What we know:
alpha+beta, 5-stranded mixed beta sheet, 3 helices, 5 strands
Amino acid sequence: MEFEWDDNKDFINTVKHGISFVETKMVFVDPLRVDIFDREHSDGEERWKVFGFAGGVLIVVSCTMDGNVIRIIFARKLTKKETEAYYYGYY
């Protein structure tokens, strides 16, 4: 897997959500990760929401996946509602 992202967005994401894009790489090797197609934000490109653990924290990563290249768009901790949905298997 190869990862790419905008360094400016990475900085903003780290300040706003406390998660750097480097940390998000762990989600993609989480055996319990969940990938969901993000139809709402897929205008012109297929975007995905990937739910999983990074450093012991459950997060969601918005990204595009093109072959072996994953482009990170943003990442944040899950909301309470999203966390419940993850644990109850609604995703």
